[in-house]
Amino acid sequence: MSALRFRTWPITATSTILPQLQSMGLRLSAEDIDGTTANSSSKPTISEALVSVGSTGRGGTGSFISDTGLIITNWHVAHEAVRVASIKDEKDYLRDGFSANTQSEEIKSPYECWITTSCVDVSDKVLAVIKAEPDPLKRANAIRDCTQSIASSAQQDAEGVRCDVQEMLPNESYVLFTQTRLQDVRIVYSPPKSLGNFGGDTDNFEWPRHTADFALLRAYAAPDGSPAPYSEDNVPYKPRSSIVVSESGAEQDDFVFLLGFPGSTMRYAPASRLEFSDQVAVPAQVKDFGRKLEMISRHEKASPEAALKLKGIKKGLANEFKRCKGKLVMMRKLKLLEERKSEELDLIERVGDEAKVPLERLGEIYNEFKELSALDNALSALHGIYGGSALLAVGHFLNEFVNHEFAKPDHERESSYRERNIEMRVKYFNTRLDDVVQPFNCEDIAHAIEMASAFDELAGVAGIIGEDIEAAVKSSHEVLSANFEKAMRGDAEAIDTVRKDRFVLAAGSTYDVYVKNRDKEKALISERDELFAKIIELQRANAGEGVVFYPDCNGTLRISAGHVSGYNAADAVFHHPKTTIKGVMEKAADAKAGGGGGSDFDCPDRFVDLIGNQPALGDVPTCLLYSTDTVGGNSGSPVMNAKGELVAVNFDRQRQGLMNEYKWSKDYSRSIGVDVRYVLCLVGIYDDNKRVLNEMLRK
C-alpha cells in the first residue's frame, strides 16, 4: 500500500535503514549519525549537533556548526527572537538585519535550544495502563498521568534537562526522550527581511526560490559548561558535536540527508479523518486565518510599534493560511481521499469485518467531530488560539489554573498546569501580554463574542466583558500584565486579583461547556486511537513485501534522505534544482519595473550595488531543491552531503510538496533549502563579517 510508505524515520531507526541509505549514497555509519541509543559509540555523532530551537525550546530545527556554540537555523525560525530584540532595542533588526562583529555585540534572546540525548522505549509501562482501563475518557486521562509521571521521574528537577514521553504508534509504542536544555541563546547574524524573506508570501511554497532564509544564533552556558539561564558571566557553549560547513555545496543528483524535528503527519490517517480535514477542519482554518490576516493588515499601520508587535503572529498566520489552501488543492488534485478509500475497501475484501467494523466506527467518530465543530470553533475563538486575542487566551488559562487546577495535587492536574510545565506557560503568555495591540484585541474579542452568541450556553460572555470592549481590554491588560506571573507562582494576593478580572470571569462562565466538550473529544480521540491501532495492525499484517511502517511525525528527532533533484511542474515545464543570485536580481528588477510581486521582491541597494560591482557573484547558488521528506518543524534542518557536511539549510517545500503531511511522492515531493554558498556570501562578502565567517569555516 504505497500511501503507507514512510520516507522519514525516527533517529533510533538509523541502523535499521542504513543499508538503504548507503545504497542511496551515504558514506557514513549509523554510529556516525545516531547518538541517542544505548548502544551508540562514545565518539561524537551528528544527532548531537542537532537542536530544537524556539521560545520554549520548540519551534524549528537548528544545528551546531562550530565548537563554540554557533547555531545555524532559518530566518523565519529566528524571527520571533529578532522581533523581540527589535522592540527592546528600538531598532528594527527584522527590516535592517543584524551582524555581531564581536562576541559582546551578540544579543540576548528569549530562545532556548534543546539537544536530544537519549530515547528509551517505555511502551510496556504505558500499555499496562491502557489495557487496564476500558473507559475511553478514563483511559485518556490515565495515559496522560502515566506519561507525565514517567517524564517527571526521569527529569527529577535536574537543571538543564527536559524529559517527555511521546506516542510513536497509538496503543503500541511510547518513547521517553531526554533533552539537554540550553536557556541562554543569543542572536549572532540575521539578514535583512528583504533578503531573509525575499519573495515574501508571493514565493512562499513556490519554486524557483531565491530566499536567504537563514540566521545564526549562539548557545551559552555557565563557565563550567553546564546549562544555565542568561548571565553576563556565561561563555559560549561547547557542543559535543558540530557539523562541518562545506564550501562547495551540492549539485544535481547528489545524495543528501537531513535531521530535524518535524511536527505532525497523518500518513496512516483513515479516509474518514482525511475527509474531516478536507471538508471541515482545514476550510475553517483558512477562513479564520484569512480574517485575522485582514485585521492585521489594518492594525499594523497604526505605528511602527504595532507593526513589530503583530509581525510575529502575521508571519505564522500567513504561512499557515497559504499552506492550508495548498493542502486543499493538492489533496483534491491528487485524489488522495479516493486512494485511501480504495485501500480500505481492499483491506475489507481481504479480512472482512475485522477491518469493516473499526473503519465504520471511525467514520462515526469523525461524524461526531463534525457535529462538535461549530461549538469547538466558538470555544477556540473565546480562548484566543491561532493568534487571536491575548486577553481571551490569558483569561481562559488563568481561570482553569486558579479556579480549578491549582488546588489539585500536581499529579492530577491537566498537563499544561503541572509544575514541570508552568515555566514554559509563563514564558509563552508573558510574551503574548507584552505584544498586545489593543485595537486588534478589541476586534478579535468582538468577533469571538459574535461566534459565542450562536450558543445559549456561551451567550453570557458578552455581558461580562461589557459593551465597551476597548475599556475592558485596557483595564484587563494592566491587571493581567501585573499579576499573571505572580498568580502562576501561587501568590495569594495575585490569585485573588485575577479571579476578579472580567476576562477570567468570562472564561469561568463558559468553563462547564468547555470541560464537557473537551472530555467528549478526549474520549472520542481515545476510542479513535484504539481503533486506529487495530487498523494499522491489519495493514501491517497484509502489507506487500518491502513496505516498512514507521510512526507518524510528532516533533521528535527524525532522519530523511534523498537527492538534489528537479521535477516536472506541469506539461512541458521542468524545474531545475538550483537557483542563483542572478535570479534575485532578475526578480527585483522585474518587480521594480512593475512586473508583479511589489515589495516582496525589494532588494537592498547595497546588495544590488555589490552584485553590480562584482558580477561573478551572480553565479553564486542561492537555493537547492531535493527529494527528502519534510514537514513543518523541519524548518532549519541541516541538509548534509554523503560525508555529513552542511550544504544547505532547509526552509520550505514547493507547492506540490504540501501533501507531505498525508503522503510523500518521489515525483512531486520536493523540499527547499538555502544553499550554503549563499550563506557564506552574505556573511563574508555582503556583511564582511570575517569573525563569523572564519568560525563557520573553522579557520
Automatic annotation (TrEMBL):
Entry-linked Pfam families: Peptidase_S46
Protein family membership: Belongs to the peptidase S46 family.
InterPro entries: Pep_S46, Peptidase_S1_PA, Peptidase_S1_PA_chymotrypsin
Gene Ontology MF terms in the entry: dipeptidyl-peptidase activity; serine-type aminopeptidase activity
Lineage: Eukaryota, Sar, Stramenopiles, Ochrophyta, Bolidophyceae
GO biological process terms, semicolon-separated: proteolysis
Keywords for the protein's UniProt record, in alphabetical order: Aminopeptidase, Hydrolase, Protease, Signal, Virulence
Name recorded for this polypeptide: Serine protease
